[in-house]
Amino acid sequence: MPVAIITGASRGLGLATARALAGQGWSVVADARRAEQLQAAAGGMDAAGGMDAAAGLDAAGGVAPGRFVTVPGDVTDPGHRAELVAAARRIGTVALLMNNASRLGPSPQPGLAAYPQPDLAAVYAVNVLAPVALTQLVIADLLSAGGTIVNVSSDAAVQAYAGWGGYGSSKAALDQVSAILGVEHPSLRVYAFDPGDMRTELHQQAFPGEDISDRPEPDTVAPAVLRLLAERPPSGRYRAADLLAAVSR
User: Fold this and answer.
1) What CATH number does the domain containing 147 carry?
2) Which of 17, 123, 135, 229 has its CA 20 to 30 A from that of 190?
């Protein structure tokens, strides 16, 4: 049974992808800072799929399609990262690392000339440094499994939007991290994945007071991640909109 680590999996794309992977037989080790939300996500998965999040058993006592193990904590904390990886290794070899946890920064977002340095450091700690640190911890597992890294990016990594200097530049750095890892480890697949706009808490924070109900639900974007995992195209930067359009043709 393949094992995935997904950060920021209490809601949004992280949770949607975790559900999809568990349905395909993956074991998912998920983290998030908000312990109650993460446990609620596990309970919701149990109710939806008949899965016991801790034991991986279905309602009849048999083996469920996959298991969902929760490890609450802050991905910027080295001790938590070690705990997260240890929990995954107790199940098996890590074949997927999905760095989905992201920090937007202050909302409304300030221009770079006025961006508070502590906030900028916090954005980079979550969006760049933590993904690199987690990759360093599991790179041997991933190489053994011929595995995959999915670093969740943004269109703000490649488009210059006023007020998005902190978040956008951090995601641009993550894109470059992904590209370099792909060159350094050609046996792996390393993807910078741009999910596009979604109806998520982070997106709402970016547009305070605005109605974002027209944005797609994360469940509609998760199939793009599954396509990357199934087809394993060359390492690189991929947009969900392109992957989903290709599926629909």
Assistant:
1) 3.40.50.720
2) 123
- CB count in 10 Å sphere of residue 24: 12
Domain of 36 in residue numbering reads as 3-248
Q: What is the dihedral of CA 70, 73, 76, 79, to 10 degrees?
A: -90
pLDDT in tens, the chain (249 residues): 799 999 999 888 999 999 899 989 999 999 998 878 788 877 766 544 434 444 333 333 333 456 889 999 999 999 999 999 999 999 999 999 999 999 988 888 899 999 999 999 999 999 999 999 999 999 999 999 999 999 999 999 999 988 889 999 999 999 999 999 999 999 999 999 999 876 566 655 655 666 657 666 888 899 999 999 999 999 999 999 999 997 655
Nearest to 99 by CA among 135, 141, 125, 73: 135
* Whole-structure pTM value: 0.87
Query: In DSSP terms, which residues pair with 44 in a beta bridge?
Result: none
> For the chain, how many structural domains are there in total?
1
Contact indicator for 72, 30 with CB cutoff of 8 Å: no
Which 8-state DSSP code applies to residue 125? I
